[in-house]
Amino acid sequence: MASIPEKIFTQASEVDIDHIVPLAHAHRHGADSWTKKQRRAFANDFDNLVVVSDKTNHAKSDKALHEWLPPRKAYWCEYGKRWKHIKHKYQLISTQQEQAALNSLAKTCR
């Protein structure tokens, strides 16, 4: 599990564990047909978990890649790579908007 580099946290109450690809987003893009076991595996997959500030987690909510990026631009490339990896790993549907956002990020991440 990684963290979106924002700052150094000194209190557990300052942080949340967030999903790179949000649970609700996954549900809308293919996970609605999964078994309970598959949903649990997705929800607990370290590849999809990240430590963030509670403020960042609330700002992101269940937004997709084209709707939200981490506050620190330096993490955008890593975030995009992880988003793409999770969507592929779980065979979740990607929208044209997501693909456009991934393509745009890829151009800046070279």
UniProtKB/TrEMBL annotation:
InterPro entries cross-referenced by the UniProt entry: GmrSD_C
Highest taxon, organism lineage: Bacteria
PANTHER family in UniProt: AMP-DEPENDENT SYNTHETASE_LIGASE DOMAIN-CONTAINING PROTEIN-RELATED (PTHR24094:SF15), SECRETED PROTEIN (PTHR24094)
Residue ranges of domain GmrSD restriction endonucleases C-terminal in the record: 11-102
Protein name: GmrSD restriction endonucleases C-terminal domain-containing protein
Segments passing through the bilayer: none
